[in-house]
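Section 3.1: Structural characterization of target chains.
Under the original work plan, the team committed to producing a structural model for every single-chain target entering the pipeline before any wet-lab resources were allocated. The record below documents one such target. The sequence was received from the expression subgroup and is listed exactly as submitted; it comprises 181 residues.
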Amino acid sequence: MNDNQTSDNAMDSNQAAEEHIVDSPLQAPSAASNPQKDREAQEPDREVEKDKSVERKANAESAKYRRRLRETEAERDSLAQAAETASQTIYQQAVQALQSKGEALRHPEDLSLFTGKQPSDYIKDGQLDQVALQADADKLHQERPELFRAIRYSPRPDKSQGYGGGEFSSRDAWRNAFKPA
């Protein structure tokens, strides 16, 4: 039995070696000689390149939109600043022209200081609320009349005075003064 077992073991090891040798050469040539598998192996590389190309295009497009967004935001901010400046100017002109019972504010900034309202409180939808501004000025005039000064209208000079009827000019008057009569 001993010889039998030894020969069986030898046979098993030979068969395993033959199977290994037979399997190896058969698998290697079949994998290398199959053009379809070669194409499939190259296709992932093409797909990766295609994905990178699509990704680059998407990044470029998103960068373009981000740049446009920044430009639009900058334009919006500058327009908002211009609108705020225009609103402030309109408010200041309106406060300087404000009158309450024939008197004007000595210092236009007193209106916002004593009423507690900011210029933006009087501006609604881009328009100055003249009624609210005048109402607050009247209320402030009742509470603090010392903040107002009387409006004095100075007479305007009459430039036609002192020139006579307009028949003679001053040059003619001097010539005529020294003419013999």
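Confidence is low (pLDDT under 50) at residues 20-32.
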